[in-house]
Please model this.
Amino acid sequence: MTIINLRDIYPFYTSDCLIEVPDEVAAAMAEFDRKEAAYRLRTYRHRAYYSLDRDDGIEHEAVFVALSPHEIYERKVTMQELHAAIASLPDKQAKRIYAHFILGMSKSDIARAEGVNEKVVRLAIERGLRNMEKYLKNVL
Model:
């Protein structure tokens, strides 16, 4: 028989409470403690972060606030205006702005893909943005 202190196991015990348990139970508890410590160390080393999402939408609802119908409509109209402004640009400016802002390509990557200098791409994007601004001011 092994003597264990319940205060070491349960945090709500404020004073020592010693009990006698069979050796098999004490060995199982010690093995559990070792495995739990190894698991915590493994998750710490591998930076394993946990998610509360159990595919029932709890985490998704907490992180992503549902939009009202008015907000959804505003976003739709804004996207339509944005696409119309891009469509009003010359072809090269529209392609370069789309590649940079929508696809996330860097200006140097766009220049390399088109076989031109990066300055040409940068100036085309700046001119395109100014043209879009003028278009949107006239429309709105």
Notes: Residues 120 and 127 are 11 Å apart (CA to CA). The chain has seven helices and two strands.
